[in-house]
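Appendix B, example 12.
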Amino acid sequence: MTPLDQYFIERYGLNAYVEHRLSLWAEWYSQNDYQHLNYPRESIESRHLKNGGVVDAYHGPKTLPCNPSAEEVESIIGILMRADEKIAKSLCYHYLNQNEQIAKAKASGVSLAQFKMNVNYARFWLKGWFHAKYDKLPKK
């Protein structure tokens, strides 16, 4: 957690911080119609085997896109997925799909009321995760 994150929490509160991080994650995740944090559908190993590395003949070596903040949220959601898959799926459908909530609920296999509760449970879970990290920081 950076000093900027700490400032954001102190200024706007933990609920706003969690919502902000989830929005950034969803934006990063869904860019350019790629899946898994904007990485291409082809694995790094496959690209190395086919192309001899991540090198463009015209522009030289390319680095993979990186967003540590979004990747952290992605890994936290992965942990939540192992703890409670339905809650994690509801959270993902909520932030990553543009459909109406009833369609998102149907896609995640729960009722609309349960879908809303699952999204709130996931936010509370993330809030607890970030609160634990925030509490470990030195206070001014």
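The radius of gyration is 18 Å. Helices lie at 3-12, 14-29, 44-51, 68-83, 85-96, 101-108, 112-135.
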